[in-house]
C-alpha cells in the first residue's frame, strides 16, 4: 500500500501557479501549437538543423532536472513529512502529517511557503488520493462516482475551464456549497454567482505541460512537487468579482476553516486566488478526536 501511495503524483498550484486557468489553457495551446508547428520543420530539416534540434533538446532536458532552492526546500519538507516508521499506524502517520501541515499554516497565514507546499502534498499522499493521469481517467472517475460535479448556482467557473474538469472529490462540492451558502447569508443582497472558480481537478499530463511551458514550478516528474489539484481535492477561488467587504469575509472564513482543520489554504498572490485543499470530513473528525483540537480551542 505504501508503495502505491508513494507513487502518487500530487502538486500544489497555489503558491506555485503564477496564473489562472486562462493561462493554463493558453499555455497548453502554446504547447500543442509548438508541437504541431515543430513536427514538419523537424521532418524537413537537413542534418545540421537536426543537430541543432538535438542540442536544444539536451538543454531542455537539463533544465527540467534542475530544481530551484524553493523547490528543493519543498521536496525536503515533503520527504521529512511523508516518511514514517513502519511500526507507526497509518492513521497516526496522517495525523503527524496534519500536525506539520497545520503548524505550517499557522506561520504567516495564507502566505505560500515550502513548509505549506511540502506538507500539503504529504497530506494528500497519506490520504491515499489517487491522482488523475488523463482526461479519460477524470471522465471514468466521474462515471464511477469518485468525482462529483458542482451543481449549484452560487459559483461560476472560468469559461475556459473544460466541462469535465468542473468536478471534485465528493467533499469538495459539499465544502464549497456550504461556504457559498454562508456567504449568501452574510451578503443577502448579493446576486449569484458569488464566487468564481478558475480551477478544480487537473490531470498529471496537464500539470506537467504547465511546467514544461514554464508556467509553474509544480511538476509531476519529481516526488514532492506534485499538484494536489491532480487529486481532485483542491480548488482555486478567484478574488475576482469580490469587493473589499467580501474579500475580507472570505479571508476570515478560510482562516477559520483552517483553524477548524477543515482545509489547507494559501493566497496565491500573483494569480489572484485562494488555493484551497479540502480535507475529507472524516479525516478532520478523526484528527480532532486524536488531537482534541476543538477542546483545546475552547
Ligand atoms: Zn490551486
Can you describe this structure?
The chain is mainly α and 298 residues long. The protein has a domain of 164 residues: Muramoyl-pentapeptide Carboxypeptidase, domain 2. 53% of the residues lie in helices and 9% in strands. The strands form 3 sheets. Strands 5-7-6 form a 3-stranded antiparallel sheet. Helix 2 packs across helix 9, helix 4 runs parallel beside helix 6 and helix 5 packs antiparallel against helix 6. The chain is globular and about 55 Å long. It starts with a helix and ends with a helix. Bound molecules: zinc ion (ZN). Zinc ion (ZN) binds next to strand 5.
What structural class results from the helix and strand content? mainly alpha
| Helical run tally | 12
Helical percent range? Answer: 40-55%
Please provide the count of β strands. 7
Determine and state the CATH class of the domain at 131-294: Alpha Beta
Biggest sheet overview: 3 strands, antiparallel
Named CATH topology of the domain at 131-294: Muramoyl-pentapeptide Carboxypeptidase, domain 2
| Mean pLDDT across residues | 80
Q: Whole-Å distance between the termini?
A: 38 Å
Encode the helix/strand succession as letters: HHHHHHHEEEHEHEHEEHH
In one word, what is the shape? globular
Bound molecules: zinc ion
Radius of gyration: 20 Å
